[in-house]
Predict the structure of Vitamin B12-dependent ribonucleotide reductase.
Amino acid sequence: MTETDDRLAGARTRRSAKAPSRGKGLKIKRVFTTAGVHPYDEVTWERRDVVMTNWRDGSINFEQRGVEFPAEWSINATNIVTTKYFRGAVGTSQRETSLRQLIDRVVLTYTEAGREHGYFGSEGDAEIFEHELTWMLLHQYFSFNSPVWFNVGTSAPQQVSACFILAVDDEMDSILNWYREEGLIFKGGSGAGLNLSRIRSSKELLSSGGTASGPVSFMRGADASAGTIKSGGATRRAAKMVVLDIDHPDVEEFIETKAREENKIRALRDAGYDMDLGGKDITSVQYQNANNSVRVSDEFMRAVDEGAAFGLRARLDGSVIETVDAKTLFRKVTQAAWECADPGIQYDDTINDWHTNPETGRINASNPCSEYMSLDNSSCNLASLNLMKFLKDDGTFDSKNFVKAVELVITAMDISICFADFPTEPIGETTRAYRQLGIGYANLGALLMATGHAYDSRGGQSLAAAITSLMTGTAYRRSAELAGIVGAYEGFARNADAHARVMRKHAAANDAIRPVGADDADVLKAATAQWQECLEIGAENGWRNAQASVLAPTGTIGFMMDCDTTGIEPDFSLVKFKKLVGGGSMQIVNQTVPRALRSLGYQEEQIEAIVEYIAEHGHVVDAPTLRPEHYEVFDCAMGERAISPMGHVRMMAAVQPFISGAISKTVNMPESATIEDVEKIYFEGWKLGLKALAIYRDNCKVGQPLSGGKGKNDGTKDEAKAEAEAPAALSHPVRKRLPKKRTSVTTSFSVAGAEGYMTAGMYEDGSLGEVFLKLGKQGSTLAGVMDAFSIGISLALQHGVPLETYIQKFTNMRFEPAGMTDDPDIRIAQSVMDYIFRRLALDHLPVEKRAGLGIFTAEERAAQVAGSYGTSASTATVQEDEVDLEQLRGSAPIEAAKLQEKVTPDGPTSVKEAHSSAELLELVTGTATDAPLCMTCGTKMRPAGSCYVCEGCGSTSGCS
């Protein structure tokens, strides 16, 4: 018997002692379980082998055979839970081997703590609580955040929180302590944030008469510490947030810090250094281990709106030491964000207007992902509900069972604070005194699609708002009930009026929701009832928790729950990458799509044809029988019909009034977005009442490696010899002029009805040397611009700029006219530039180079399809218990995990493999997904809130 088994047996013995009824405590009724039947006895269990390989060289980096999981759990969930959450050394008797052991380790610890601290009215209530919690975890209805699975019930400190906020003062001892506390938190695999605005600026004097260093200088030491700990192989990489107030005299230096470093990265990259994310030379660049955010006030944003002056204030006495133009300063914020995605923005007055504890102190900072905002030196433990589990067969949301689930989860989360350990004593004291919780959800995007709601629509936003209001209203109502049983939080008395005021603000926002359909009206009715009870019970008992809800990234735990979408995010893409029993993987169409089509009234024959079209093209545009007015339901974060940046902001604004904290989300913007577009996003976020906002513009960072960008030299002797014999590089480029008489090809084209001509001139060896474009009437502005553009491209080609450099830059550029073309090899173009450079690639690049860019002729794509049919059976063994026949028929697996590119008589020129949905999307659409590679297994990650998550091993880039 293992140590874990001994502990669990002891817990069951204590449970069977039948403690007498206390006469006071929670009365818990069964909702999901059956009396006399343990939840484990209601599911079918099976043994599986978990073998994780490195896709680059095929080596095994993890192996555990014979693990036990429910048959309904996917292989992906099995792999991630086994590798991430099972405790004990692999290969020893102490290693956990079954999901039962994992759930028992956590649930029995929570239940025992609930008994000891008087949460349950009787032993029977405690047993029902244990069974209900077990059932919901077993059936993937919710999950605690990762630290719970890492630590609870083990010999390690019982740390349950993923989110921490620190504090630093204008003293050297405090600054050095900041370094120490961050290190302790990073060591445990969690993240922390803090506000540096108390540190005096470099424009102020020290008591000794010298000039202060300023907060940015101290950021260097903290950044180096975080990078060192990250490189040391913690559970997750270090994640941190650094905030500075907009009125700090050093704010301009802070704003431009990461943008300057990004310029340095580009210069070093161009000089030949390895500056990829995780590259050996990237460590020489500073400030790369933190997210930076500027904290703006209403006063500043009004000054921006009015074009007025704004004062930067000394830290010691608050006096204005410099006056700047607010609009110019705001422009610097947005320009830096446009250049490198930092800084994000936090809206200080909005944050503190919804603060339940202002008598204790202000909210100055957030955790690294910006969803937890509370007092300095505090922490928050998180849990997220799987919304798709509450979608009934008739397409309506199950508000009744959702309320019961929230009650149980919020109770368990509060119990955890009773036994939890904390990295520092100040954090422990604040957390135990204010008991901040962070219940949230995942799978919102899948739920909206399944019910026929477009993500960026009034109906979708109304339903999301109603569900979020129901969740937080129920959580606070249960918190008020807990206050009547085990007492309100210690800091409640001094903040009672403020806390009640915020509860009324939430309730008023709920009353302001205007339902669009019957489904959101029903959910809203249930939410209104919860807020009424919350206010009534809270007026009598107070509340147990200062905060109740956040919307976290839900990266790794989203995979544990087999969620299609994370947090508040829309679906990433319509095509998915599914792992199979026995190894291998295959492409399927997201199974939310057929459900959505049924809710929209389509017949099964139509659904089958639409799904087959999506499997081949990766989008719904021109899908057979699909009405154009329904296209928006299937809009995703990436792909042909990507949701607009403002669509993401509007969804955040719809749910923000019903969240205690904030929302972890990055608004992705296309590479063509302008600084003015970023200004609009940040300004509208303030007007719409968001608490925080961050953007990411495609390709704005060098250190975001794209698949296929390396490895073009396969290491053959001929290439090595050619490289060795190449002449030394000249100190400056030399123009190689075309001969007086040269071969040229003129191509006529039409993009969305706009016609034009392209003439490509070539050297004697057939390589491209000039391009001339004719578009628009002679003498028009457009014709002149195209002439100038043609000359610029031609001169660059003659000076040695590779054609593929231009193809990488100009393909996928989006602007009108865009749409159908008359070219059979390029049926749809996102712009004239997209078409022109795709055509040039097809005409002038060899297939191996085009393969790396994802550009193929119609004939080559047909060969890929034929090759996939011929190899899919041998690539992966599909077992019926993993993928049923209906799913296979609906998914139309045209491409398997391994897609073989053009085959020559000498063999394949290259092989492109998909290892995640992000890479699969690239293969299907021929576009690049701007995301980092996983630091653990090398697979391309995909966005999850303001972080990235790896579908291969479950690793995250932040604090989900």
